[in-house]
Design a protein that fits this description.
- The complex is a heterodimer of chains A (about 400) and B (about 325).
- By secondary structure, chain A is an alpha+beta fold.
- Chain A folds into two domains: about 210 residues, 3-Layer(aba) Sandwich (Rossmann fold); about 130 residues, RNA polymerase II/Efflux pump adaptor protein, barrel-sandwich hybrid domain (OB fold (Dihydrolipoamide Acetyltransferase, E2P), Beta Barrel).
- Chain A has nine helices and 20 strands.
- In chain A, strands 6-7-8-3-9-10 form a six-stranded mixed β-sheet, sandwiched between helices. Chain A has a five-stranded antiparallel β-sheet with strand order 13-12-11-14-20, with no helix packed on it.
- In chain A, helix 2 crosses helix 3 and helix 3 packs across helix 4.
- Chain A is globular and about 75 Å long.
- In chain B, strand 1 and strand 2 form a beta hairpin.
- Chain B has twelve helices and two strands; from the N terminus they run H-H-E-E-H-H-H-H-H-H-H-H-H-H.
- In chain B, strands 1-2 form a two-stranded antiparallel sheet.
- Chain B starts with a helix and ends in a 6-residue tail after the last helix.
- In chain B, helix 2 runs antiparallel to helix 12, helix 3 packs across helix 10 and helix 11 runs antiparallel to helix 12.
- The chains are: A alpha+beta (about 400), B mainly alpha (about 325).
- Chains A and B meet through strand 6 and helix 2 of A and helix 8 and helix 9 of B.
- Bound molecules: adenosine-5'-diphosphate and magnesium ion (MG).
- The site of magnesium ion has 4 residues of chain A, from helix 1.
Amino acid sequence: MAVGAFADRGADLELVGIEKRFPGFTAIENLNLTIPAGSFFALLGPSGCGKTTTLRLVAGLEEPTSGRILIAGADVTNRKSFQRPVNTVFQSYALFPHMTVLENVAFGLRRRKIAGPVAKAHEALLLVELDHLAHRKPQQLSGGQQQRVALARAIVNRPALLLLDEPLGALDLKLRRQMQLELKTIQEEVGLTFLHVTHDQEEAMTMADTIAVMNKGRIEQMGEPQQLYELPKTSFVANFLGQSNLFTGPVVSTTSTAIAVDVSGQKIVVPLERAHRVSGEVTIGVRPEKVILHAEAPVQDTGRNVLGPGRVIDVSFSGVSTQYLVDVPGVGTLVVFAQNMVFGPAAHVGASCWLSWNVVHGFGLDDDPAQSPRFEADLDTKTIAQQRRSSLLTELEEA
Amino acid sequence: MAFAAFSSTAPPPTTAPPPTTAPSTDPAARRRSPVALFLLLPGILYLVLFFLTPLVSLLLTSFQAPREFGDIGQYDYAFRWQNYVEVVTTYWPHIVRSFSYALAATFFALLISYPLAYFIGVKARKWPLLQSLMLVLVIAPFFISFLLRTLAWKQLFSDESFVVQTLKALSLMAPEAHVTGTAFSVIFGLTYNFIPFMTLPLYTTLERLDVRYLEAGSDLYASPFHVFRKVTIPLSMPGIVAGTLLTFIPAAGDYINASRDFLGGTGTQMMGNVIETNFLVLQNFPAAAALSIILMTVILVIVSIYVKRSGTEELL
Ligand SMILES: Nc1ncnc2c1ncn2[C@@H]1O[C@H](COP(=O)(O)OP(=O)(O)O)[C@@H](O)[C@H]1O
Ligand SMILES: [Mg+2]
C-alpha cells in the first residue's frame, strides 16, 4: 500500500477456494470468485448467507479456514487488515464515538499521511451532504446520517478496493437513489473496484456490472444483472432475483432447438439453449411479466406455451401494473404481472382464464427437482424443518 | 429556489405554541422536587453527620494553639495559621515524597493492570470461565488482611529471606544493601496493594469495549499500536481515570506501607506516617490536622485538574 497517495486505479480481487468455518458452523464453503479491476460487483443474498463474512475475509478482519485471497495479483491472505489496500463501509457503521464526524472521516487519511486530510474530509462530507454536521459526534446523528458518514470515511481514502456492507440500508428511497448515483460516479471516475453487499435485489441490479447470488455460504450464480434475471440457473436465484413461476416435470421430447416438458398433462416447450438440463425430471419457469392472461382459450400457436384453464384467486393493483394470482389445477398457483393498459383490472377474482407466454421466454433450471422446492425459495424455517424431516425419513428407510 | 418559494407562501410563524407546552411540564417538576428532596434526606443527613462534621472539626483543630501552661496535648481553639507554615517547613520532604510515591505506584499499577484488564475483558471474552477465574484471582487478595499481606512481603524482603540471600549470593545485590526500608519496597507495596483498585474499573470499561471500533481502525490503515493509542485508550479513558483516582488518592495518604513496622524506613516516611506520629505519639493534634487538610486540598486540586485535562467529566 502506497503511503501518502491515493490509489490511481482499482485492483482486481481473487478468492481461491475460500472456506470459513466457525466452531460448529460453516459460514462459507469453497468460494471461488474473480472480480476484475474497476468493476462494480454486487454480492446478493438473504440475511445470514455469509455476505458479511466474505467481506471480513477480504478486509482481513477474519482469517479463512482454507483458501487464498489475492488483491491486484498479490497474495494478501497472511497480511493484516491495516496492510491491505482495502476500506470497508461497515454494516454497523462502527464510527468512533470519541471523535467528531470530521475526525472520523480524516482518520484513514492521517494514518496514510495524505496531504490536507481536513480539506479532503470536508470534500467527502460535502459529497454525502453532511458537511454542516462535521463537528458533531456520531451519537448526535440519525442512523441514515451515520451511515453516510461511514460511507464518507471509507470513500475518502479512494482505496483500490472498496467493500460496502449494505451501505445504503438505513437511507430513505430518495436519498438512497442519490447515493447510489454518487457511488457509481465515484467508482467510474477513478475506476475503483467496488464489492457491494446487499440484500436489495433492485439495488444490485441497477448498480452492479456483475452480480453474484449467494445462498448458504455458496455462490449459486454469477453474471450480468440482465443475464441473471433472464436466465436463472437455480430456483433460489429465480425467486430471489425477482419472482418466477416454476414447474417440474419430465422431458417428453427433444428436438434440435427445444425440449418439451410434461407439466401435469400440458406440454411446455423451452428453447434448448435456455435449458440447463435436457433430460429426466426438470424444473422450468417463466417470469410473471412475460405471461399473458386470456379470458378464452387462445388459438394454438407453436411459438407460445399455453396453460389453462385456471381461476383467478387474487388481484392486487400496484399502480403501473396489476398482479394476478391464478390457480391452475394440477400445476399450482402462478403469478402474472400485467401492465395497466386499461382502467381497472382485466380479470376479476373467480374468473376463469388461460395463460400463455412466448416459448423463448421460458427457462430451464439446473436444480435437481427432487431437491428444490416447487415455488418458494427454501428460506423459511418451516420448509427447512420439513426438508430435514423428509431426508431423515429416507435415511431411516434406507438403513 | 424551491425552498424560497415555499417559505414565501408559508403562513407567518406563530408564537403561540410554546406557552401552551411550557407550563404543562413545569408543575410536574415542581411537584416532583419535594419528593426528591425527601428521598435525598437520609443521604444528606449521613453526609452532614459523618463527613461535614468531622471536616469542620478537623479544620478547627488545625488552627488550635497550645494551652498556656497546659500539658502536652492540651490545645485551645484559636486562629493559629502559623501551624500550616510550621508543618510545611518541617514536613515538606514528606509531602513531596507522598505524592511522588503515590504517582509512581499509580503509574506501575496502571502498567501492570491495563494489560491484565485488557486480557480479562477483551481477549478472554471467548472463555467466560477463564474470565471469571481471573477476576476471582484479582479479588482474592482481599480475603486476607491487608496488614498480613504487607507483613508477608516484609518477610520476603527481609535481609535473612531466601529472596535477598539468593540475590546477594548471585552478586545481583551488594552485600550490605537492604530491600526493606527503601523507596523501592514502599512503592512496591503501594503498587501491590492497590492493583485490584486499578484493575477492576479498567476491567469494567474494557469489558464493554466494542471491538468493531478496533476493527474499523485497522481497516483505516492504523497499525495495532495506532489503534491502541487512537481508539482503545480514548475509549477506555473512563476506566483509566477511575482506576488511577482509586489508586492515587488512597496511596497518597497511605501510612501502612511506608511505616517502619512494614516496608518503610526512616527515609521513606510519607504524610500518613507523620500525621500518625503527630497525632498518636507527639499528641500535636493541630499539626496532624493541618497536615491532613493539606493532604486533602492537594489531592482535590490534583484530581480536579486531572479530570479536566483528561476530558472525561461527561464519561465519569
Ligand atoms: N463469529 C462467528 N461465530 C459463529 N458464527 C458466525 C460468526 N460470524 C458469523 N457467523 C454466522 O455465519 C453466518 C453468516 O453470517 P454473515 O456473514 O454475517 O451473514 P450476512 O452478512 O449474509 O447476513 C450466519 O449464520 C452467522 O450466524
Ligand atoms: Mg451482513
